[in-house]
Design brief:
The structure holds 3 protein chains of 3 kinds. By secondary structure, chain A is mainly α. Chain A has 13 helices and 4 strands. The longest helix of chain A has 37 residues. Chain A starts with a helix and ends with a helix. In chain C, 68% of the residues lie in helices and 0% in strands. The radius of gyration of chain C is 20 Å and the shape is globular. The two termini of chain C are 21 Å apart. Classes of the chains: A mainly alpha, B alpha/beta, C mainly alpha. Chains A and C meet through helix 4, helix 5, helix 10 and helix 12 of A and helix 6, helix 11 and helix 13 of C. Chain B: Pfam families: ABC_tran, BCA_ABC_TP_C.
Chain lengths: 317, 259, 341
């Protein structure tokens, strides 16, 4: 244990933690929204993220022909390349997420009430996607070209605010605001909320359940895809097994905030991002991957409904 | 009646958020009687069952069973101490046979556990055969012995309701809580069920009954308590309750003299 | 009505008298013991000696699937950290075998006891949680234990433990690389004992309690079942089986390290259970045998094995959501006859 790093690097850790936290928040959407409507863990969301990271890099390298050695871009070119990467990752992840729902959940929903069956088919999809990418990439990590020159914009209390970090934070906030408007104001969003509150009644009221569920997976996938682009922008590398680690952390974030609760996912993601950064400064990075689990276990043991509630245990009785 | 009180609710209040499902309810059930608990939908009848069996912790008040408080007792201990119930919507163990359903309940008084079962201890063997005998007797008593090896979910509806009673009796209770046991029955089935409940009472059980069918209630119960919006508004002999203006008002929604 | 192999088999069994049953069981057991004879036939595995495959993965995974089935299939408790008990057994063998100079058979009861103890501790902590929360917490615990082991030099950290002793020669059977069938037969004996224990428990009080908890936990409790206690027992029973598998694995492979006990193992075993038919011993065995054998058999596709595994899971769950051999849907013969009268 060593607190000196924590103290000296506190501002930098905080900024990095917030950026990581926003990535978690966006992935957590894929878990928390699906849990809201289906009361099922969207096990394959981790692979939706993984595919998003590859999609984002491949758009830069294949579509725009950039390589790892490419010089950073500037001006208009930079903007449209980055936008293409972001939108591409969002669209592809969204589509994969919808496909996951069709393959792993839709038919089973009609024929069985056994929740484990859907979990196993989702695990099957997860293995299939991860293995497919592993074979295609020969297990090798894939680096992302640095298209954005990572200049430091300002320094606050000794913390460098890099442009990529700022980009993540700004875009994540814009996306979350859009999502909030979508869920609370639009017709489809209201359908999603109705199904989350009471699946059976919503069905009786004539809500097209399949459409609502597909939309939920699409929106969750789009958020996860955006997270994938941000991850690639900040960390500049991906590998076939990236989904597992990030997925578990994001799921923890969702549980932390009270799964099924979109605003809870926001708080949970930020909290987890910060805690992970601080604790790896204290205990050493080899323990970083364990932080999410320890927090997850502690939260569930002492506050089974998450910090912000939205009890799902009662929902199930 | 001079019979001792077996179950006593004292100032029982159950609050969910802002809603008082039960408000200072006092009720005593005497040993050996059939007490019917009636009232309009949402009056709090099933809540009484849920509080007594430990599903909910009461916000206020006390429940005494045979003179001792049930406070803080876990659900299975309450059952073991002699209170058993059925459910408004049938909740049998569908993938088990009728006999196994009852056996699950009779197990509550058995001492042998997993190790005894695994190594076939003499006690486990003795208890297992005694349980089977007893469960079979209960099924015969209820009149569904011919169904004992069928899966509960394949039984006809009426037999499922009867099996619920049999399963509750399996726990060897002193007090049976029956939650609308005749729901969905036709008049002749209701009559048969009424006779069965009387037969159950006559063989030594005390029955607290929730029922909507007034003719059944009037036929078989010794006393009727009426709940309305979580408050007890009457508690008397069936005949007297029937003419109680408050009760008529609760059911019809208008004062009795206006009708 | 669709044809249900499980019911078909169960009907044959139900119609048989006592001696026919003994005979059937005997034939089955003899056949299981003779499986090593299939080496060098169509069933041979291309890259790994067939008899070794019978022990690991087939035998070990079957055993663990049986143990996990008590937890998931019978009691309905979704445990995604089952590999932890396997690890406890294996590390007990690795650490105690060397330090206390105990042989495999002496370590076995200790490994099982320690696994049961960890099942008790873990269960006591997490079994108040329900459903998916339980799944995630058990998953979390499994990973915490693995990562802690990975960072603990006292138990070898990422290097693990090497040179674990093979079991001693017992009743004239040698346990070494040249005699893989000894391991297979040992695991087969443990599997048979486990099956017998589960069958006995199933028809008695613990089996009924588990079944009631799985079907409707709230009602079970109201009918007097001490659900916490029986959930714990299910956990502890499953842990014991996992521990036994771990001890045997460590003494056969002679080497263990934290990365052998990854989350994937828990998920595979769960997949075997669900794939075969939760709650039904024979379904689970079939699921475990098929899913652990097929990837070995088709090793020529070696790189795509797991891809196909994932695909098989998706297709099978969509075609047979209750598994290959689902739990019993039939009623006993006796009542069938009564009805037809």
């Amino acid at each position: 244990m060593d607190f000196s790093v924590l103290i000296s690097e506190f501002p930098t850790l905080t900024v990095d933690g917030i950026a990581l936290g926003f990535i978690y928040v966006l992935i957590a959407l894929g878990y928390t929204m699906v849990y809201g409507v289906l009361r099922l863990i969207n096990f394959a969301n981790s692979e939706v993220f993984m595919i998003g990271t590859f999609a984002s890099i491949l758009i830069a390298t294949q579509l725009f022909g950039h390589t790892i050695e490419s010089e950073p871009l500037t001006g208009f070119k930079l903007v449209y390349t980055m936008l293409a990467m972001l939108l591409g990752a969002m669209i592809i992840s969204g589509l994969v997420s919808v496909l996951v729902e069709i393959v792993a959940y839709r038919r089973l929903r009609a024929v069985t009430t056994n929740r484990l069956t859907s979990l196993i088919s989702a695990i099957g999809v997860s293995i299939f996607l991860a293995e497919g990418v592993r074979i295609l990439t020969s297990s090798a990590p894939m680096g992302a070209p640095r298209l954005l020159d990572k200049i430091t914009l300002v320094t606050i209390f000794g913390a460098d605010i890099r442009i990529d970090i700022l980009l993540v934070i700004v875009f994540a906030i814009i996306l979350l605001v859009c999502l909030d408007i979508f869920v609370n104001k639009t017709r489809l969003g209201k359908g999603i909320r109705a199904v989350s509150m009471d699946y059976d009644t919503a069905k009786l009221m004539g809500i097209n359940i399949n459409k609502v569920i597909s939309t939920t997976f699409l929106v969750g996938g789009i958020g996860t895809g955006a997270a994938a682009f941000f991850y690639v922008t900040v960390y500049e590398v991906t590998v076939f097994r990236i989904g597992f680690e990030l997925g578990i952390a994001a799921f923890t974030a969702a549980v932390l905030g009270g799964i099924g609760n979109i605003r809870g996912a926001f708080a949970g993601g930020l909290a987890l991002g910060l805690i992970e950064m601080y604790s790896s400064a204290i205990f050493g990075t080899q323990w970083k991957s364990i932080t999410a689990f320890v927090i997850l276990v502690l939260v569930l043991l002492f506050r089974p409904n998450g910090i912000f509630g939205e009890s799902l245990q009662q929902a199930r009785v | 009646m001079t019979n001792p009180v077996i179950l006593e609710l004292k100032d029982l209040t159950m609050q969910f958020g802002g809603v008082k499902a039960l408000n200072q309810v006092n009720l005593s059930v005497k040993k050996g009687e059939i007490l019917a608990l009636i009232g309009p939908n949402g009056a709090g009848k099933t809540t009484v069952f849920n509080v007594v069996t430990g599903v909910y912790k009461p916000t206020n008040g006390e429940i005494l069973f045979n003179g001792s408080s049930l406070k803080g007792k876990s659900r299975h201990r309450i059952t073991k101490s002699g209170i058993a119930r059925t459910f408004q919507n049938v909740r049998l163990f569908g993938d088990m046979t009728a006999l196994e359903n009852v056996l699950t309940a009779t197990d509550v008084h058995n001492k042998s556990g997993l190790m005894g079962a695994m190594f076939t201890s003499p006690r486990s063997r003795r208890e297992e055969s005694a349980s089977r005998k007893k469960a079979q007797e209960i099924l015969e008593f209820i009149g569904i012995a011919n169904r004992s090896d069928q899966l509960a979910r394949n039984l006809p509806y009426g037999d499922q309701r009867r099996l619920e009673i049999a399963r509750a009796m399996g726990t060897n209770p002193q007090l049976l809580l029956l939650d609308e046991p005749a729901a969905g029955f036709n008049p002749s089935e209701k009559k048969a069920l009424g006779e069965l409940i009387v037969k159950i009472r006559n063989s030594g059980y005390t029955v607290l009954l929730i029922e909507h069918d007034m003719s059944l209630v009037m036929d078989i119960s010794d006393r009727v308590a009426v709940l309305d919006f979580g408050e007890k508004i009457a508690d008397d002999l069936p005949k007297l309750v029937q003419d109680n203006p408050k009760v008529i008002e609760a059911y019809l929604g208008v004062p009795a003299d206006a009708s | 009505m669709t044809f249900n192999l499980r019911d078909y088999g169960a009907n044959i069994w139900a119609r048989a008298n006592k001696w026919q049953r003994y005979l059937m069981a005997l034939v089955f057991i003899v056949a299981a013991f003779s499986l090593p004879l299939l080496e060098n036939t169509f069933f041979n595995t291309p890259n790994t000696p067939f008899v070794s495959v019978l022990f690991y993965p087939i035998g070990l995974y079957t055993l663990m699937a049986l143990g996990l089935n008590v937890v998931v299939g019978k009691s309905g408790l979704l445990d995604l950290g089952y590999v932890a008990f396997y690890a406890v057994g294996a590390y007990t063998a690795g650490l105690l075998g060397a330090s206390l100079k105990l042989n495999t058979w002496e370590v076995m009861p200790i490994g099982i006891a320690l696994a049961m103890l960890s099942g008790l501790i873990l269960g006591a902590a997490v079994l108040r949680l329900k459903g998916d929360y339980l799944a995630i917490v058990t998953l979390g615990f499994g990973e915490i234990i693995r990562i802690t082991a990975l960072n603990s030099p006292a138990i070898g950290a990422s290097m693990g433990i090497t040179d674990i002793a093979n079991p001693p020669t017992t009743f004239g059977f040698k346990f070494d690389l040249d005699n893989p069938e000894s391991y297979y037969w040992t695991i087969l004996i443990i599997i048979i004992i486990t099956i017998m224990a589960i069958r006995i428990l199933s028809i008695r009080r613990p089996g009924r309690a588990w079944e009631a908890i799985r079907q409707d936990e709230d009602v079970a409790e109201l009918m007097g079942v001490n659900i916490y206690k029986y959930k714990l027992w299910a956990f502890v029973f499953g842990a014991a089986v996992g521990g036994a598998a771990g001890v045997l694995f460590a003494s056969e492979s002679m080497f263990i390290s934290p990365n052998i006990f990854k989350l994937e193992v828990s998920i595979f075993i769960l997949a075997f259970v669900v794939f075969g038919g939760m709650g039904n011993i024979w379904g689970v065995i079939l699921g475990a045998v098929l899913l652990s054998y097929i990837p070995e058999r088709i090793r020529f596709l070696s790189d795509a094995r797991m891809l196909i595994f994932g695909l098989v899971l998706i297709i099978m769950m969509n075609l047979r959501p209750d598994g290959l051999l689902p739990r019993k849907k039939r009623e006993k013969i006796k009542s069938d006859k009564k009805d037809s009268k």
